[in-house]
Amino acid sequence: MQLAIVILFIISFLVSFTVYATYLVHMFQLNSYKPKVQFHWLFVNKGKIIGRSILPLIIGIWLFLSTWTGMTAAVILNLLSVYFSRRKNVKKPLVYTSRIKRLFVSIFVLFIVVLIAAFFSLDENKLRVVVLFPICYLLLPLLVLLANLVNKPIEKSVNQWYINDAKKILASMPNLTVIGITGSYGKTSVKFYLSKLLSAQYNVLHTPESFNTPLGVVRTIRQELRAFHEIFVCEMGAKNIGDIKEICDIVHPKHGVITSIGPQHLESFLTVENVIKTKFELADSVPADGIAFLNYDNEYIRGQKKYKNIVSYGVEEEFNPTYLAYEMKTSSKGSTFKMKDTEGNEHTFTTKLIGKNNVENVAGAIAVANSLGIPMDKLIPQVKQLNPVEHRLQLIKRKDLVIIDDCYNSNPSGAKAALDTLQMFEGVKILLTPGMIELGSRQYECNKTFGTQAAAVCDYVVLVGENQTKPIFDGLVEAGFIKEKIHIVSNLQEGLKAVDSIKASGQEKVVLMENDLPDNY
């Protein structure tokens, strides 16, 4: 009977331990495998971590006081721990890469080594070693980081092999033109739009989805790049100084596009100056015979004049960009605008995309494509066929509801542009948002300003997360928005129910879904 209880305890603990380890490893993956970021996440979420550790702590005390009684109860507590730790509605599931599998192996090897060492150090009542089980559970957040440290030499070696292999593939294609795209926002949209326009004349490969890290780019090259490709459009993301340079050192871009710069990822960048420096690592990597395409609508970008081969674009005439989108008309049905080619000939473009930001991004794509030899006449039908990029001012129509899906990680400029887009629609205007994140010391200020801006546009506001959205609430109230028209909910599902409950009196409801926090928030 006693042996059966021990076996049940070990099995139930291992299940609970594995569930918790999977959660922590998932967060580590979302935190880009960066220990410093993971430590910060642990600090910010210490309440959750402590909450998860209460049951193991009770188990440890119980085991210490009374082995058999405690162990029997511990089986039940372990199973309860599994039940309360299960996760639903994960937006981005854990990807079981080779690195993740190696990390799990190291976590369990370290756990077993600790148990074996403790077992042989006990002279009497070796079953007391089970007290270490809940202790290891309590220390699991640190055990994950220790396992990562142990694996660091292996991961560095594996990553370098992949990088070198990608470099060999690129070296074997000397006629391939690589175009790098970066920016605080807009880079993914420009990437997709540009790839579509370039496909009118070239065989194009682009990094899929948001594969904008060094290893994401390397994976694309190794798995997707073929000898027939003529252009590789490479999105480059960054959260720290040097991140863009690291990708540039792998792909060596011939041309570079900088779509925007703004106060984003300030938790890691700390200052906007560091963001500027990092984004312009792309322009610094462009060779003498290459072109830096710069969005002159952005104040941080147009201030950089040190580069020789610059082609600028934008929708603001006062900044005199090389490629200007003018006479712009944008509505809930789409957008039209005019542009001139390098010879001064005027061309009219029509697109189903909505919002000024999208026109700005299309203008950037046209600037690159035309500079690479594709005539404007050939680009007009390509622009007409452009589809919205998922979660980036994507229009979704239902029976009595129009959703403007702008759920991808938000920023102050993008949020204001999304509100401007919402304002173009007729009907009951509703904002559904959890606010903006990763803005460091400016997070309260930026979210409060967003609340003030929303008050001038929206009829109703649904805030997801009371603490997270307090700055938006403060901005709304300060701007005189009626409190009864503010709904505060705990999660997105409750938010959608709140939207359904709003009475539209026969009018169409237009819902702007601005930002959707990732699983590690």
- Class of the largest domain, according to the CATH hierarchy? Alpha Beta
Share of helical residues: 40-55%
- Reported by name, the CATH topology of the largest domain is UDP-N-acetylmuramoyl-L-alanine:D-glutamate ligase
Form type? globular
Low-confidence stretches: none
Give average pLDDT, whole number: 87
**In this structure, how is the largest beta sheet organized?**
7 strands, parallel
Distance between the terminal alpha carbons, to the nearest Å?
A: 45 Å
Radius of gyration: 27 Å
In which order are the strands of the major sheet placed? 2-3-1-4-5-6-7
Task: Give a written overview of the molecule.
The protein has helices spanning 2-30, 35-44, 46-65, 67-85, 98-121, 132-138, 140-171, 187-198, 214-224, 243-251, 266-269, 272-279, 281-285, 299-302, 356-371, 376-384, 412-423, 443-455, 470-478, 492-501, and strands at residues 177-182, 204-206, 231-235, 255-258, 292-295, 310-314, 323-324, 326-331, 334-340, 346-351, 394-397, 401-406, 428-433, 460-464, 486-489, 509-514. The chain is an alpha/beta fold. The chain has three domains: 2-154, no CATH class; 173-384, UDP-N-acetylmuramoyl-L-alanine:D-glutamate ligase, CATH 3.40.1190.10; 394-514, Protein-Tyrosine Phosphatase, Chain A. The strands form three sheets. A seven-stranded parallel sheet has the order 2-3-1-4-5-6-7, with helices on both faces. The protein has a six-stranded mixed sheet with strand order 11-12-16-13-14-15, with helices on both faces. Helix 3 (46-65) packs antiparallel against helix 6 (132-138) and helix 7 packs across helix 9. The two termini are 45 Å apart. 41% of the residues are buried. The model has no long low-confidence stretch (mean pLDDT 87).
